[in-house]
Design a protein that fits this description.
The chain is mainly α. The chain has six helices and two strands, in the order αββααααα. The radius of gyration is 26 Å and the shape is elongated. It comes from Rozella allomycis (strain CSF55).
Length: about 180
């Protein structure tokens, strides 16, 4: 009678730690969920092999952009925690355009936001998501309100400084050449 070999730890568990020596493995390991136990996509991210199989499926299902977006979203949320930006601090604001105590000033995070928007959300983007018009307009309106705030600030600066100096110079008959 032939015996079936027992599965190795690497086959049976997702190693959340690292191998310390040939015989000692960190205790922080979790059992891989069976397919019957998987109730959401986040659980698939715990298993790199299953994630790759799911990616292959989404390609065949013509929905790979959803998975790609979600991976970038997870990376973005992780970056926020690395740079100590509290993603939940926006919840108590009256408006999305209202300034936040935790302003995002890191250029890498700002670039991630712009990349996600231009790759997945903007109309006609390369991997445009199948969003409701309400969701797409919400994001677009958020960006527009940010620019409205910036434009208002710049208009105040130009009205208070540049315009006054320009009018004074014009009244004196002084001309400036920009070349």
């Amino acid at each position: 009678m032939q015996s079936t070999p027992l599965p190795s730890i690497r086959e049976e568990y997702v190693d959340q730690g690292r191998v310390l020596t040939d015989s000692i493995i960190e205790i922080n390991i979790r059992r891989k969920p069976s397919l019957a136990e998987i109730t959401n996509v986040d659980m698939i991210f715990d298993d790199p092999i299953l994630l790759e199989r799911f990616r292959d499926f989404t390609v065949l299902d013509f929905s790979v952009e959803n998975l790609c977006f979600y991976e970038e979203y997870r990376d973005f949320k992780h970056a926020l925690t690395l740079f100590n930006v509290d993603p939940g601090s926006n919840q108590n604001r009256q408006s999305l355009a209202e300034p936040n105590d935790e302003e995002i000033t890191n250029p890498e995070i700002i670039q991630m936001i712009l990349n996600i928007y231009s790759e997945y959300i903007m109309n006609g983007s390369p991997s445009e998501l199948n969003l409701t018009e309400f969701a797409r307009l919400g994001v677009s309106n958020y960006f527009a309100s940010i620019f409205d705030n910036v434009a208002g600030e710049i208009l105040r600066l130009m009205n208070g400084c540049s315009l006054m100096r320009f009018i004074a110079m014009e009244k004196e008959g002084k001309r400036f050449e920009t070349s």
